[in-house]
Amino acid sequence: MNIIKKSDNIIVFSAKTTDSLANAIRRSSYSIPMIAIDEIEIAKNDSALYDETIAHRLGLIPIKMKKDEKKDGVLKFKISVKKEGFVYSKDISGDFEVVYGEIPITLLKADQEIKIKGTTKMGTGNEHTKFLPGIIVYRNMSEVTLDKEFEDVVKKVFPEVEIKTKGDKIIIKDNLEKSIVDFCEGLALRNKKESEIKNTDEIIFTVESFGQIPVEDIFKKAISVLKKDLKGIKIK
Questions:
Q1: Residuewise pLDDT in 10s, the chain (236 residues)
Q2: 62, 134 Cβ separation under 8 angstroms
Q3: How many Å apart are CA 139 and CA 106, to the nearest integer?
Q4: Is-contact 216 13, C-beta < 8 A?
Q5: Which helix (H) or strand (E) holds 173?
Q6: Among the listed residues 202, 204, 205, 201, the one whose alpha carbon sits nearest the alpha carbon of residue 222
Q7: Using an 8 Å Cβ cutoff, are 195 and 185 in contact?
Q8: Beta strand pairing call for 104-108 and 134-147
Q9: How far is the C-alpha of 30 from the C-alpha of 130, rounded, in Å?
Q10: Which domains does the chain have, with CATH numbers?
Q11: What is the DSSP letter of 22?
């Protein structure tokens, strides 16, 4: 495994695996249990938004997960705001902490008020996307073969790319965060030259967290879910 990029909420890495296994891991991320706002009771809503719209926005606000979070646990919260301006996710008070405090919920004018209370629920992305912890995407790592005359151009645009020389050709390893295959193909096409694209035995994963849990945990938990599912398969 080779780390290509790593930040607080995104990690990009390459690994030797197959498309089928990569896709199975991606799909397993939809079965990671997460908490989200589920039921609400709106006592007052003077804003221009319908109750249903506000309920939808609240459900999509990421909530920080605790390590000892119980699957059947219910967390309570409330919102009580009477002021002119935006009502933000930071205005939510209760048994949990939101990941991002500046998510706008609605807008109030002078003398308008909003009062809401509700509860959370533990669920999975298979049930509703509000329970997703993040996203996992992947692509094949490729090797692009071009005429050697394009080496300087490729290096100028992508200084970190790995390039090998073979006779009058260069072999470019498409191992960056974003694929450079389209650029190389377009470069060859514009100059009426040929290019060759060949997939390698490596896959590049991009994992992004919505903030409920660390980005590394999303991939680890997805693998754990997959392992658990595979144990339940009986082979005759």
A1: 889 999 989 999 999 999 999 999 999 999 999 999 999 999 999 999 999 999 999 999 999 998 777 777 789 999 999 999 999 999 999 999 999 999 999 999 999 999 999 999 999 999 999 999 999 999 999 999 999 999 999 999 999 999 999 989 999 999 998 899 999 999 999 999 999 999 999 999 999 999 999 999 999 999 999 999 888 777 66
A2: no
A3: 38
A4: no
A5: strand 169-173
A6: 205
A7: yes
A8: unpaired
A9: 11
A10: 2-30+135-207 (3.30.1360.10), 34-128 (2.170.120.12)
A11: H
Cα-trace Rg, the chain: 24
Tokens standing for 162? Answer: 């790995």
Helix (H, G, I), strand (E, B) or coil at 203: strand
Backbone angles phi, psi at 174, to 5 degrees: -80, 70
